[in-house]
Amino acid sequence: MPIETGSHQLGPDNGSLEVRTLREGMASKVGHDLIIEVRAWEGTLAIAEDPAQSTLALSADPRSLHVREGLHGLKPLSDKDRAEIRKNIDEKVLGAHSITLRSGHLELAGDGNRLSVHGNLTMAGNTRPISAQLDVDPGGRVTGTIPLTQSEWGIKPYRGLMGALKVRDSIEVALDVRLPSR
Hints:
With about 180 residues, the protein is mainly β. The protein has a single domain (about 5-180), classed as Lipocalin (Beta Barrel). Helix content is about 10%, strand content about 50%. The chain contains 1 helix and 14 strands, in the order E-E-E-E-E-E-E-H-E-E-E-E-E-E-E. Strands 1-5-6-8-9-10-11-14-2-4-7 form an 11-stranded antiparallel sheet, covered by helices on one side. Strands 3-13-12 form a 3-stranded antiparallel sheet, with no helix packed on it. The protein is elongated, with a radius of gyration of 17 Å.
């Protein structure tokens, strides 16, 4: 089994957490699909002898979101564009509400290559149930992309240029972490 029992600390030192957005609308060509890096996050993956007792807890500071890359726009993102996007995330999308995932139910596939996570995700002050599938490789790398719909958490997707440029309601959160070896 690739994941050893015990407590595994997760964070920027051994992994990455990203938010990926896509744009739409009549003016979508002037916007960018974004890869947003979460710079301040931490988590604990606790694998128990009894798999039913295993847990995952993650927390992220929404003010640490940083636009790493803007894709498919007419021109590259400037520092001013990045600052404006960050300001909009803080003021119009997430606010200063902490983002947390608490899972009290994990299932590790018999071959140890897949981890099913079931729990509650809190964003923008709203909590909803969530399930996710994560891949586990033999070297202890855990990866997965989790699709989310912003409006399910009461988040109104960003709109600019009088509604002609919009961020799609569906986004993706990507986790890629290497569990520390013992």
